[in-house]
Specification:
Elements (H helix, E strand, L loop, with lengths): L14 H19 L11 H14 L6 E2 L2 E2 L6 H4 L2 H7 L3 H27 L1 H12 L2 H7 L5 H19 L4 H14 L6 H20 L8 H11 L6 H25 L3 H15 L10 H9 L4 H13 L5 H19 L12 H17 L4 H30 L7 H21 L3 H28 L4 H11 L8 E4 L4 H6 L7 E3 L2 H10 L2 E7 L3 H5 L7 E6 L12 E7 L3 H21 L1
Helix pairs in contact: 1-5, 1-6, 4-5, 5-6, 5-7, 5-8, 5-17, 6-17, 8-9, 8-10, 9-10, 9-12, 10-11, 10-16, 15-17, 15-18, 16-17, 18-19, 18-20, 19-20
Length: 592
């Protein structure tokens, strides 16, 4: 396989390449999509699940709502991606998570394609194997959010750039810019900004490298700049960018046209411009992404670190390796420059890291021993210790921890122990390929177990979903008009507390009191911390907690929810109670 560094024309795929890619897609599909409904919704997942459901129920695709209240937090495409799966499979956790899983599967194929195009089939296979067994990739592929869609958009743009946009081909440029425009409505313009920053930086680096051995002159510099930046400084680039700009404006103004509100536009500005230049939340130290990058590379962190050192030392005369170095450094700096930092923002760096590691491992398999190869051998051996530790932990849990005991641990624990030891033995005997294959299979099986059976065991300690299901049973047949939420902001609760229409959401005791004037008997769902403020409104016996959520693990009760039944006494009942109390006092006095 050869490619021209100027035009980046790559060798046509063979039937073997397509077969390998299909096999990788199948394997990743098992890991990313098996048992997607085992875990109940967590964190921000509830927002995607609820908003997509209410779009289906209302028929309004341009107005995101949670319990009927407008909630513009992310652009619309990531919600729309869920709707077809809701319509086909029902409104389940799995349906809400499937867009992320499918995006992750596509990314596995994309990593294979880029590794294959740059360095050959073996590098593509290894890189894809590293990517699909990266623990945080598996985690986010099984999470309802915009992260994996955003990651797919960024790397699709970078692949299209290499396949033809860099050379100024109009169709590739049109696809490049249009992906960026469309992706801006999944998680904001960050996908386009990252990809644009990468290709601009790569072109600048190539211009600088072109001066080696050349006399400095304005004419030469201009020629090199125009050649490297033809993807934007040409009529093809201008035309493609203009078409994408029209697409962006159309997507931007559609919600305004259908809702009459500029909230979506203001959201785009606040979340993607203001937050970048003047962070207002998620503030972490400047070195945060050094730590997060290591975590997101696990369990292959040591292999990635050795590979980074290896490729940086040897990238100067190889445009393909230089491309990966520029991608990695640019993505890292892009997110570090922004003061608003969160661990998963750095997800786009993971494909670059596994491609670098894939190339380094591929070279290691065939090379003679030298200091770099010895260090890689040590990194792989230490990595093989991970399944040994996991296997030992499984055996300990089965023997000692009754709550997390599962029959599968009896088989998988010893298997992980033996597999890790076997992988180390292969590496020590200079059978590096077999050692890596063992490690890949071990991590695949362990992660599949962890995100299905393991997640099922952990789910026993989570109580929000069971609380909502019990509440639904107790309120079966109760009119929605006499059910209200009090201070509830948990979108997962709203998702599981399924009613025919939006419920009243009371914000403070005054609104609760006003609601009481309209309904003598009704139900409230509130956080436990708010219960005293509710009981302060009513007389003794009027507010009764009929169902309480059990605390999750060691969490305090104040984080739980309570279903309260309010039965107010009428003025006549109150007068009768007072009369009865008076008669009891009189009788008591007479008796004395």
């Amino acid at each position: 396989m050869t490619s021209n560094p100027k035009t980046n024309t790559f060798q046509k795929w063979s039937s073997r390449d397509w077969t390998v890619c299909a096999l990788l897609v199948l394997i990743s599909g098992i890991l990313f999509c098996a048992g997607l409904s085992i875990r109940s919704l967590w964190g921000s997942e509830g927002r995607w699940a609820v908003i997509a459901r209410e779009m289906v129920q209302s028929g309004n695709l341009f107005l995101p709502t949670i319990n009927g209240e407008v909630y513009f937090d992310k652009p619309l495409l990531s919600y729309w991606a869920i709707i077809p799966f809701y319509l086909v499979f029902g409104m389940t956790e799995a349906a809400a998570r499937l867009p992320s899983g499918i995006a992750a599967i596509a990314l596995v194929a994309l990593v294979f394609a880029m590794g294959r195009d740059l360095f050959g089939e073996r590098t593509g296979i290894i890189s894809a194997a590293l990517f699909l067994t990266s623990a945080m990739i598996v985690f986010w592929s099984r999470t309802a959010s915009a992260e994996m869609l955003n990651l797919l958009a960024i790397w699709s743009m970078l692949w299209v750039f290499l396949r033809g946009a860099r050379g100024g081909h109009f169709l590739h440029l049109l696809i490049f810019f249009c992906i960026g425009a469309a992706a801006s409505f999944c998680k904001g313009p960050v996908a386009f900004a990252v990809a644009f920053a990468v290709v601009a930086a790569y072109s600048a680096v190539n211009v600088l490298f072109s001066f080696r051995g050349q006399a400095l002159s304005w004419r030469f510099a201009k020629e090199q700049a125009l050649n490297e930046y033809k993807w934007i400084l040409s009529w093809q680039g201008f035309a493609a960018a203009a078409a994408a700009a029209l697409l962006f404006v159309m997507f931007l103004l559609l919600p305004v046209f259908f809702t009459g509100s500029w909230d979506s536009v203001l959201l785009m500005w606040k979340e993607n411009v203001i937050r970048f230049v003047k962070p207002f939340d998620h503030v972490e130290p400047p070195y945060a992404y050094l730590v997060h990058s290591l975590v997101f590379s696990s369990p292959w962190t040591l292999v990635v670190l050795v590979s980074l050192w290896d490729i940086i030392v040897r990238c100067e005369n190889d445009w393909k390796k230089r491309w990966l170095v520029v991608v990695t450094v640019t993505i890292f700096l892009f997110f570090t420059v922004s003061g608003s930092r969160r661990s998963y923002y750095i997800l786009p760096i993971v494909p670059a890291l596994v491609l670098i590691a894939g190339k380094s491992l591929s070279d290691w398999f065939e090379s003679e021993e030298n200091i770099r190869r010895i260090i890689m051998k040590l990194a792989v051996i230490v990595t093989a210790v991970i399944p040994i530790l996991v296997g030992a932990a499984m055996i300990y849990v089965y023997l000692k921890l009754e709550d997390f005991k599962h029959i599968s641990e009896v088989a998988l624990g010893p298997l992980a122990l033996a597999g890790g030891i076997t992988a180390i033995w292969f590496v020590l005997k200079n059978r590096a390929k077999r050692g890596f294959i063992f490690l890949f299979l071990l991590f695949f099986v362990l992660e599949l177990w962890g995100f299905t059976i393991g997640m099922g065991m952990a789910e026993k300690k989570r109580t929000l979903k069971p609380f909502c299901l019990k509440a639904n049973e107790m309120l079966k047949g109760v009119d929605d008009d006499i059910i209200a939420l009090y201070g509830v902001t948990n979108s997962s609760l709203i998702y599981y507390f399924k009613r025919d229409r939006a419920l009243h959401n009371l914000k403070d005791p005054y609104e609760v009191d006003t609601f009481s004037e309209e309904h003598r008997e009704f139900f409230l769902i509130a956080e436990a911390t708010l219960v005293p403020s509710i009981q302060g409104i009513y007389t003794e016996g009027e507010a009764l907690a009929v169902l309480e959520q059990e605390p999750e693990g060691k969490r305090d009760r104040e984080n739980s929810f309570v279903l309260i039944k309010i039965v107010q006494q009428s003025k006549r009942d109150i007068d009768e109670d007072e009369d009865n109390e008076g008669e009891e006092k009189d009788n008591k006095t007479v008796n004395q």
